[in-house]
Design goal:
single chain; mainly alpha
């Protein structure tokens, strides 16, 4: 699973998506909330909660690459804080994505599966859900649960995650020995990546290898 993008790259992409698309989601939630305690109260509470969670998350990012044991311990505590104090927020899902990556790095795929399924079931955010879905498919592939992995990405996905869906599908099909179908999936992934201006040398290498070997 070494070909995964870094956590920072994935999260930055989601943050950009949220800036462009999140406003409509917030407004929709706010309209529903007015029936209980008023729009202004809701907005104030949400802003305060979001700012507090954001501050914790920014600290996670600031020490994420540190190799110091104290920072590693602090990072783990902060991720637990995001999940315990801000459940149901986007930062709760961010924390689960970090936990899943840590679990993969520690070769604890069962924990990674649990964290990713949590995001899929609870985030309510399309970008996060799609990211978790692709990552879960890769985790299941690593666990040799190929049919379950393929079921997650078999239908494909249009938009920003199309390339990752198709590449993951190709990886699973290749592992199953279906090289023709894998080549087709990789080809679609290359086209989708080019469409959004993404550069993925590893994907191109996978496609080239199949062309050479077949």
């Amino acid at each position: 699973m070494s070909d995964m993008r870094t956590e920072e790259e994935q999260i930055e992409a989601i943050k950009n998506w949220w800036k462009e698309n999140g406003k409509q989601t917030v407004v929709a939630l706010a309209v529903v909330a007015t029936g209980w305690f008023g729009f202004q109260g809701y907005q104030g509470q949400k802003q305060a909660t979001g700012e507090a969670a954001s501050a914790v998350y920014q600290e996670v990012l600031s020490i994420n690459s540190s190799t110091e044991e104290a920072d590693k311990g602090r990072r783990s505590m902060l991720l637990d804080q995001l999940k315990s104090e801000y459940p149901g927020t986007i930062y709760d899902s961010y924390a689960s994505l970090f936990n899943a990556k840590d679990a993969v790095d520690a070769d604890d795929l069962a924990v990674a599966e649990t964290e990713l399924r949590y995001v899929m079931d609870n985030s309510g955010d399309e970008a996060l859900t799609q990211l978790a879905t692709v990552r879960l498919a890769r985790v299941l592939l690593a666990m040799d649960k190929m049919d379950d992995a393929l079921a997650l990405v078999a239908a494909g996905k249009e938009g920003a995650f199309e390339a990752e869906y198709e590449e993951t599908k190709g990886d699973i099909l290749f592992a199953q020995g279906n090289k023709d179908a894998a080549r087709d999936a990789y080809s679609k992934a290359v086209v989708a990546a080019q469409r959004i201006g993404a550069n993925n040398p590893m994907l191109k290498m996978k496609l080239d290898d199949l062309a050479v070997n077949n």
